[in-house]
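ok so heres the complex, two chains, lmk if somethin looks off
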Amino acid sequence: MRQLNNSYKFILIYFLVLIPIGLLFGAFESYPTSTANLAFGKINMNCKGNIIDIINEPSSIIHFNMRGGGVIWNRPFQINELQQTAFTSAFIYKNWGFGVSASTFGNNIYSESMLVLSVAKSVKARLSLGANIILYQLKITDYGTAHAPGLSASMRYNINDNWDWVTTVRNINYPKIGSSIDELPQVVTTGFIGTLYEILTIATEWEQDLEYKGALKFGIMVKPLKQLLFSVGYVSNPGQLTAGLSININKIYFEYGTIAYNDLGLFTHQLGIGVNLDRH
Amino acid sequence: MAYLHISLVLVLILIGIKPINAQQKEATTFLQNLDAEIAIPEEDIILINEILKGQWSLGKELAKQIMKLSIIDFDDERVLNNVSDSKSLMAISQNDDVSDFLRQLITIIDKSTLRKKKLGNVLVNQYMVFNDDYRYRWKFNYNANDYSAGLIAERDPNEKKLIDHLSGYLFKKYSFGEVIIGDYQIVTGFGLWSWRSVSTRKSFETIAGLPRIGRGISPYRSSNEAWYLRGISYTRVTKFGDWNISGGYTKQDGRIDSTGNLTLSSSGFHTGATSIAQQNNITESVMLGQWNYDKLNRKIVTSVAGVNWQDKNSSKKQDWCGSIAFNQLLEYGNIFGEIGRGYNRTAGVITGLRLKFPNVKYLISSRYYSKGYLALRSNPFAEWVGKDRNEFGLFQSINYKHNRNIFIIYGDLFKASDIKGDDSFPKSGQEAGLRWENRKGRRYQRIQWKWEKKSLENNGVYLLAQQPKYEIDNTLKYSGVFNFSKSFWCKLQLTYSLNETSESKSQAYGLDTQIWWEMRNVSIFFDVVTTVIDGGSAWIYFWDVNLPGEMVTKVYTKNNIFPAIKILYQTNSGFELGFRLRAQWKDFDFSRTPEIFGALALEILL
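and the predicted structre for the whole thing:
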């Protein structure tokens, strides 16, 4: 009975938080993001070379010269049965960037899974382009399983030594899933990230899911020590506050991030660990 | 609130990104000096942006691209035709015989190209408009010596798909000709067979543009979803003229009804159930051929196309269209014309004579389009643009130049050639205009008056007790650009519009004040439009505060005040950012929250 109650709670919150009122149930609204980015205003563009973020911005593989892997785990809205995990690995081969990622979201009744293949290439010195080919799988226990292919892309331009402009477009092939032909989210993001001082990085991003009003995101990252990094951020519409920290030991990083849903009074806590062999 | 956030963020970015070098901002106000009531084709706007970004090296090829712009004068085209290298192109900026428009354009190109001479040939553009919903457009261009490629992706507000429209091309130039694979456009003759997405309009500029014969085939650069041809095009240059053969198929919106009637939609908007159902419903297969003979003082173009339309239910329709156009230079001007065969055995004819004497130009042109005249991508010079319209028309214009003063008068008479009894559309009308302009470089002053009178026909549903017989529009405009210093500029526009019928009267007053500050790498524009409308049927037109790559006209139909701000920022690394916001209060007491409209354009050159 307790498990059933929690399932109802999950579905209720899913509708309230992820699916704005008046719309159909939307699958794959909760995209995995790195713990560092979650703490940094839940920004989509890859802010500090975290490998998990190639799921959102494949062009970052080549920009950050990634070689390594990472994993995240979170428990959305503090619901025990609900969890999200993601694993990513990326490498460079002959000036091309490649990556493979997998993620799951849900509980033992409802689950969303993604398998993502990433490719990236730089065009001249300042521009990096990337694409993700995604296989979406939606599974409901005792009901069935559905699949859909997706295509996403991203572009990162290095304006100067301190500032980057990043645009991502998710599901540009207009994918639909299941017998009810549910449209998967089509999302555009565009933003800037800049290092003002060696210890201070700021970022802002506009995120637009075509079904909803847009959201503006801000993040501030402070690095008081070489091994320690603090982040805070804000997401508008609806308002969400984010915070977290990252500990870097050689090429390995351990991260914690949290996001506070002001309207619900609930939190999502996320942990992440990763290694980037090219990280300095 | 989001717009305030965006503004703050952009200010932060502008502070954060250090400028590298001085910039030239003249281009931002370049097209704004044209009349806001006359639409500029998007292909022109995009092409001019590519030209100013240095996508073609200075010289003959760049002159060829400039000649494709619809806003180039007939006499300017002849000067551009003689360009052989960069020196002869740049010399145009000192040539008093060309129009101020071309002289200013070449001056800007000179400065822009110097600035970007170390930059590359890849141009990427992202354009977002925030209105009721969001419009997105992404553009990619690559230009090398003999190769070019382009891709454009677009989504209109409220459309379901993120990439609702995708268009692209590959272009290769050989010593003996050219090949285009993908989307291309043909601008030929005088609009009776294939033309730009906007026709040559009746205006003070008609005397400059109407006598120009189309420049032929080129890659398609617009996001207009209904105007391209998709397939393969091959042009062979021979001593007997240029021969072009093209074939392919294009997806069009529309339907073929049970009686075989074809209806095509060119709006490009796919938001309602009907428009979504008709999206790409028609496959238009085209095979076309063209012969261009261009020697000395004579140009002849013959074009023919066979077309097959098929909808998704396999309903089919076939037809063909063609035209012959010519332009013959005379000692004191030129004579031109085109005769076209449209679909459904319709016909169109346009002829004209242009005379040029020292300081004086004169144009007379007549036209006839039979009912329902429509050809491949026809867009003829006409009062009534639309496939179910038809007309006889006679246009005249005279242009007199005295020192820095230009006087232009034009007049047009038109009459429906095939009157339909139950149609409420006007059957006849007249239009006339008078303009004085004084220009010195970027500074100018202009006063113009336009008068239109059209008959109103009874369609049996008119609600007024006394049905009006005619409608008259009077528009009086003043426009001037001044500078207080080298970097501080002002533009003032005053418009009065009067719309009257035999039974009613409406007046509109508009004031648009724009002040802008051109700094080393940033330009900031402040703009306020105030309109007072009495009656509702008189309207006011002003350009919006447009970003590079857009030319949006706003139509004002109510009492309103509209403050706006535009920020443009460039770095020497090839990055450019443009942002505009406009607020709209519904009344003058400012008590309600204003509606906010905006756009963001980002561009990089590699």
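quick notes: The interface with chain A takes residues 1-2, 5-6, 9, 12-13, 16-18, 20, 120, 122, 124, 126, 128, 134, 136, 153, 155, 160-163, 571, 573, 575, 600, 602, 604, 606 of chain B (CB under 8 Å). thats all i got rn
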